[in-house]
Every structure is written in C-alpha cells, then in structure tokens.
Amino acid sequence: MISFVGAGPGDVDLITVKGRRLLEGADIVIYAGSLVSKAHLDYCKDKCKFYNSAYMTLEEVIEKMVEGEEKGLKVVRLHTGDPTIYGAIKEQMDFLDKKDIQYEVIPGVSSFTAACSAIKSEFTLPSLSQTVILTRIEGRTSVPESEDLEKLASYGASMAIFLSVQQIENVVEKLKRGYKRGDVPIAVVYKATWEDEKILIGTLNDIVDKVKKEGINKTAQILVGDFIDSSYERSKLYDPKFTHEYREAKN
Where does the Tetrapyrrole methylase domain start and stop, copy by copy (predicted)? Predict the structure, then answer.
C-alpha cells in the first residue's frame, strides 16, 4: 500500500493523527523536501529510508514506490499541506493505477487555512462572502483563460492565492481590475505556522511595497477580500431570535 499523506503547512503538530501513525510505521518515505519540515522524519523508525522528491523526477518517484511495493514495504509519499491542492498527485496515482498498485490519500491542513488562522480571521462571513476561491496566477504552469485572476476577483469572493507572491505586482494589478477598487484588504502570510512566519496586512494600494520591503518572493499565501477587515452581520446560528433543529428562538 502506498500512502499519500498531507504533512500540513509547516508546524509538525498539524499533521493528522493518522498521517503521523503512517509515518511511524513507514519503511520508505518520499518527501517534498523543498516544503515539508524535516522534523517529520524524526518520527520514523531507525531503518526507514528517505528520498527527497525535490531532486527526483516523476518516474524516479514511481520507481521507488514500485520497489517498495514489490518488497512488501510500507511507503509514505509525504506532501506539504493537503496533497489534493497543487500536490501533483493525480499523475502519480495514474501511474500506480496502470501498475495495479493500491494506494490511499490522507488529507492534511492546507496552507490557505493555516494562513487564515494566522491572521485570526474567517473566510466566510455573513453579508460579506460565503465563497472561497483557491487559485494561482499563471507562471510556468498555465491557467485556463476562464480562471484568469481578474475574472475571479470580479466575483468579490474571499480568495486564497497560491504560488504567486513572486509576481505580487502582477497579482495586485489583476486584483484591482477585478475588484474595481484599491482599498480591498489583503494579507501575505510567509511560511504559515513555521517558526519564521511573517504576516503582512495591507490593501491592494500598499501591499506591493510591504512585500518588497520584506523581500518575500516564495512560500507565501496571498489572502484577499473584505473578510480580512470589514464589518459583517452576526451569524444566525447563535442568534437568540433564530430557531433551528437544536434550539428554540428566545423572545
């Protein structure tokens, strides 16, 4: 069995209990060394073999998986955050399907939720936004034209933008055109939950200067929307005048 495991955003304690148990029992761990904290490997047994996928091709990763499976070993493919978001796991699973090798996917805490927690906010606020858009700007990996950042911003929803801080000027330019205003709140969270985490809060009008001043050009989440700093309506869930399945309204 091959186990794709989400390691979480940085803090090793944010891996799931199931993910930690799989690591502890693994014979082989193939980890995303450019993003996953190596402290996770301290929980593995002494004879566990480690492979850093940052230096490997897809074919080399699959080769190690197949070798482990043929020897009856437990293999963990350790991804950063949640493996189902920008994890490039589909192409790995397709290879395993062709070879009739069984696998499982263990979810993890994503950097977008970790970043929102870091700024002590909530994406979905009544009267402001009930939608969260996860996206990225085009780079070496293309983005469908229908998902251009400017078009997505025009919805006015809360947004979490991955893998894009290196193009912060371009990001902000597109967001301004989409939101049609420059005072939209924005947060850039560098290495959320890591010891060297940095949080920058501003608006579309001033965030570029703040990011450049700090020299942040990778490993950061960009959160955008009025949920960061605006008034909102109280939730109906705990409103004393609201009746639901578990509680009657109070006059």
Answer: 1-207
| Nearest Cα residue to 113 out of 136, 152, 79, 81 | 81
> How many Å separate Cα 98 from the centre of its chain?
28
The pLDDT value given to residue 127: 87
In a domain? residue 240: no
Residue 218 sits at the vertex; the CA angle it makes with 217 and 219, to the nearest 5 degrees, is: 145
Handedness of CA 235, 237, 243, 249 (dihedral sign): negative
Backbone angles phi, psi at 83, to 5 degrees: -65, -15
Q: Give the model confidence (pLDDT) of 160-187 as tens digits.
A: 999 999 999 999 999 999 999 999 999 9
Residue 183 lies in a domain: yes
Buried b (16+ CB within 10 A) or exposed e, 6-33: bbbbbbbebbbeebbebbeebbbbbbbb
Residue for token pair 């985490």: 197
Structural domain contains residue 249: no
Torsion of CA 95, 101, 107, 110, to 10 degrees: -20
* 223 in the same domain as 118: yes
- Containing 149, the helix (H) or strand (E) segment is helix 149-153
Same-domain check for residues 46 and 129: no
The yes-or-no verdict on residue 233 having pLDDT over 90 is no
The structure's pTM equals: 0.90
Q: Is residue 235 one of the residues assigned to a domain?
A: no
Res. 239 pLDDT band, cuts 50 70 90: low
Total number of domains constituting the chain: 2
